[in-house]
Amino acid sequence: MKRILIIEDNRYFYNWLKGLLKPYFEIAGAMTAKEGLERLKEKRPDLVILDMKFPIEPGGLPKKRMWLEALKEIRKYENIKVILLGSQNEDEEMVEKKIEEGLLDNCVMKYDLDENPDRLLEAIKEVLKEEI
What CATH number should be reported for the domain whose range is 3-128? Predict the structure, then answer.
């Protein structure tokens, strides 16, 4: 069974994602960047679902572009795919620049997935080359 790490600070949304994916995948979760990178080392997931707005420490305020720092650490591991979760008002220009720099290779950007869970399942199938 493929392993997915969800780095998401919104407990409601994390539980929603976990409930959606648990029938198909082994799920690990983290609420902060620090916790997420610890879980990454422990679990060695096949896929990381990374929120683009989350705190470094529990109870902290989201740090702008903290996801970029987390993504750089994730990229140190081979063969881990990433799905970035964002909203339509994310800094699209900056995301495009990072794509050009190669940082977002093998990343899939998904917006407002809570409106259509099938989009997330389709993205996971695409990224992992896995039938669900």
Answer: 3.40.50.2300
Regions in the chain scoring below 70 on pLDDT: 54-65, 86-115, 131-132
pTM attached to this predicted model = 0.80
CA-to-CA separations, 37 to 30, 57, 67, 71, 120, in angstroms, rounded: 9, 12, 11, 10, 22
112: alpha, beta or left? (left if phi > 0; alpha if psi -120 to 50): left
Rounded-to-integer distance, Cα 36 and Cα 38, Å: 5
CA angle 64, 68, 70 (to 5 degrees): 105
